[in-house]
Write a structure and sequence with these properties.
single chain, 227 residues, alpha/beta, 7-stranded mixed β-sheet, two-stranded parallel ribbon, 6 helices, globular, binds S-adenosylmethionine
Length: 227
C-alpha cells in the first residue's frame, strides 16, 4: 500500500466488531451528495465505480437509492476494504459488488477492470474527498482510468473542496489546504483549471459544477469527443 495512504473513518461512531468503520463526514454530507447524484444517475441502469470508497457507507446509501445501478466500491487501504466488505454484508443489497482493490495512482486501476471479472463500460465514476488527500499522480490515474473505462455517455463525478482560478472559495478551505500540505507537501486542495487541463488529456471535459454545503463542490466531467 502506498505510504501516504492514511486510515480514515474512526471519527464517527464506534468501530463495529465486523470491521465497519464510521466516518463523521459521511453523516454530514451524504444526503446532499445523494440528492445531486440522483439528478445525474437516477433511472439509468449501468455499472458505477466508487473510487476511494473509504468506510463504504456512501456506496450503501447510493445502492439503496439507485437499485438499477450496480455499484463497485473500491479502495487501496486494507482496513477500508475490510470496512466496505462489512458494510456490504450488513446491507445485504444485491446491487453492491465486492470491493475492488484499486490503486488510483495506477492508470489501469486493477486487473478486474481488464479481465472481464469487473464492471463493464461505466455509467459513472464517483470519487469523494480523495484527490486532495493524495499526490497529484492519484488525480492523474483517476482521470486516466475514467477516460479509459467510461462508456460514451459516462460521467466522472468528483466531490470535495476545490480552488477556482488559484483561489480558495472559502477561508476554511484555505486553512484546510495548509493543514493538508503540512502533513504532506504532495497533498492539497486542487484547482479546477488544473483538473480541466488533466481531463482534456483523457478526452474529458468539465460540464457542470454544483455548489454543495460547507464550501464543497461536485464537478461533473463527460467525454469531450466520442470514445
Ligand atoms: C478522506 S477518505 C474519503 C473516503 C470516502 N470517499 C468518503 O468521502 O467518505 C480518502 C480515501 O482515499 C483513499 N485513497 C487514497 N489514496 C488512494 C489511491 N492511490 N487509490 C485508491 N484510494 C486511495 C483512502 O484510502 C481513503 O479511503
Amino acid at each position: 500500500m502506498a505510504g501516504y495512504v492514511v486510515e480514515f473513518g474512526k471519527d464517527g461512531g464506534k468501530i463495529e466488531p465486523d470491521g465497519r468503520l464510521d466516518a463523521a463526514a459521511y453523516h454530514r454530507n451524504h444526503q446532499a451528495i445523494r440528492a445531486v447524484l440522483r439528478g445525474f444517475l437516477a433511472g439509468q441502469p449501468g455499472d458505477v465505480v466508487e473510487a476511494g470508497s473509504g468506510t463504504g457507507q456512501h456506496v450503501v446509501d447510493f445502492a439503496c437509492d439507485f437499485p438499477e445501478i450496480t455499484w463497485w466500491p473500491s479502495d487501496l487501504n486494507e482496513q477500508h476494504l475490510k470496512s466496505i466488505a462489512a458494510w456490504r454484508a450488513h446491507a445485504g443489497l444485491s446491487n453492491i459488488r465486492a470491493p475492488l482493490a484499486i490503486d488510483l495512482s495506477d492508470p489501469s486501476w486493477c486487473a478486474e477492470m481488464r479481465d472481464g471479472s469487473g464492471p463493464g463500460a461505466l455509467l459513472a465514476v464517483f470519487c469523494a474527498n480523495v484527490i486532495h488527500i493524495a499526490p497529484w499522480r492519484v488525480a492523474e490515474g483517476l482521470f486516466a482510468g475514467a477516460g479509459r473505462y467510461l462508456r460514451p455517455d459516462g460521467r466522472l463525478l468528483l466531490y470535495g473542496p476545490f480552488k477556482r482560478d488559484g483561489r480558495h472559495t472559502a477561508v476554511s478551505n484555505a486553512v484546510f489546504d495548509s493543514s493538508l500540505r503540512e502533513n504532506n507537501p504532495d497533498w492539497g486542495v486542487r484547482d479546477i483549471a488544473d483538473l480541466e487541463r488533466l481531463a482534456d488529456n483523457f478526452g474529458l471535459a468539465l460540464r457542470e459544477t454544483v455548489e454543495m454545503p460547507a464550501n464543497n463542490l461536485i464537478l461533473m466531467f463527460e467525454r469531450s469527443k466520442p470514445a
